[in-house]
Amino acid sequence: MIYITMAFSNKLHCISVFIIISFLTLILFASGLDVSNNVAPAPAPGSDHDGVLPLAPKHVVIHNIVENGEVLNVHCKSSEDDLGLQHIPWDKYWSFRFHVNIWKTTKFRCHFTWYGGGSHYFNIFTVARDDTPSGKTPVCRECTWEVGKEWKDGKTPMCRVDGDGRTRYCFEWDDDSL
Questions:
Q1: Is the pTM of this model over 0.85?
Q2: Whole-angstrom distance, CA of residue 102 vs CA of residue 20
Q3: Which regions in the chain score pLDDT beneath 70?
Q4: CB–CB of 165/178 below 8 Å?
Q5: 21-73 per-position pLDDT tens digit
Q6: Residue 59, exposed/middle/buried by CB under 10 A (0-12, 13-18, 19+)?
Q7: Hey, is 3 helix, strand or coil?
Q8: What span, in angstroms and rounded, lies between the C-alpha atoms of 163 and 105?
Q9: Where are the alpha helices (DSSP H) in 32-165?
C-alpha cells in the first residue's frame, strides 16, 4: 500500500510541476506581448536595400503623383497573379506583397491610365532591376514608386524612391515592349 501511495504522490507531483511550469511560461509569453490600443505609425515610403534571398518577400508601393491631380487607374499582373483594376486617388498609395519565385523570374507588369494622361505600361517589378545586387539600382524589399510626375529630363514618369526619400531611380514607360 505504501508503494501505491508513493506512485500516486509522484504522479501528483509531476502534474503539479507541469501546471506550474505551464503557468510561468504563459506569464512570460504574455508579458512579451504588446496589447496596447496604440496604433503604430506606418513606415515612411521608401526602398530598403535587402531582400535578395530566394523567395524573398517584396512589397511594391505605388504613389499617385500625376501632375494633373487625377485618379490613377492601375492594373498589375504577373504570370501567376492578376491583381485587378485599382483606382488610386491623387497623392494616395496602393500596394501589394509577394515573394520572388525560386527561379527568380518573378515580374509584375502594370497598365496605368488617368484622365489626360493616356495609357502606359511599365514593369513595376523585375528581378534584374529590383532584386539583383549587381543591378543598376539597389535591391529593394519595399519598392516604392512615384507615378506620373515628369522629373528633370521631362520624360521619366516612373521613379523608384530610395529609403532616404531623396534618391530616385527614374525610368520611361515600357510602352514599346508589349
A1: no
A2: 45
A3: 1-14, 16-17, 21-54, 151-156, 177-178
A4: no
A5: 665 454 433 333 333 333 333 344 444 444 556 688 999 999 999 989 999 99
A6: middle
A7: helix
A8: 24
A9: 127-130
